[in-house]
Amino acid sequence: MSEHLVRLIPRLHTYRTNEASARAAVLALQKCVKAEEISFFQSGQVEFFDCGSALNHISCPRCGAAVPLDWWQQKMDEHYKSDHFFVLEEDMPCCSKTVSLNDLRYEAPCGFASLCFTVRDPEEAVGQEAVECLSERFGILFRTVEAVY
């Protein structure tokens, strides 16, 4: 049986909040999203939230060129070992521009964060209303990372 996870993460990958605010946000999400479970996770480190097997392509946001997967995997390993994804900037192999690994164009979307709200097995698509609910509550933009395992 598969599990459908929709993760709502801040665009600023190092953003953290206090537990009371996170719990209140879960209650607010429960009013606009029907799901088996809505929870939050917060870590002292930055985590990578993937899209499961849906990751088909990664491209550079500056020039649009495809990012070689072996280069990306090497950079992921280096950043994990050096500072657990706290600093994500890299000079791109395609255009030599400095880009955050968090800003690469992942198809399907992926991202890095210290804070994550997870909607497990939603009854319907998690829409922009949920993203806006969190963005307004915390005063920072959020994004959606969806995965089926």
What does this structure look like?
27% of the residues lie in helices and 36% in strands. The model has no long low-confidence stretch (mean pLDDT 96). Strands 2-7-1-8 form a four-stranded antiparallel β-sheet, with helices on one face. The relative contact order is 0.35. The chain has 149 residues and is of the alpha+beta class.
Strand and helix order: EHEEHEEEEHE
Number of distinct beta strands: 8
Mean pLDDT, to the nearest integer, reads 96
Distance between the termini: 9 Å
Give the neighbour order of strands across the main sheet: 2-7-1-8
Helicity level: 25-40%
What does the main sheet amount to? 4 strands, antiparallel
The unreliable regions are none
Give the count of helical stretches: 3
The value of Rg in angstroms is 16 Å
Backbone shape: globular
- Sheet/helix structural class: alpha+beta
Proportion of strand residues: 35-45%
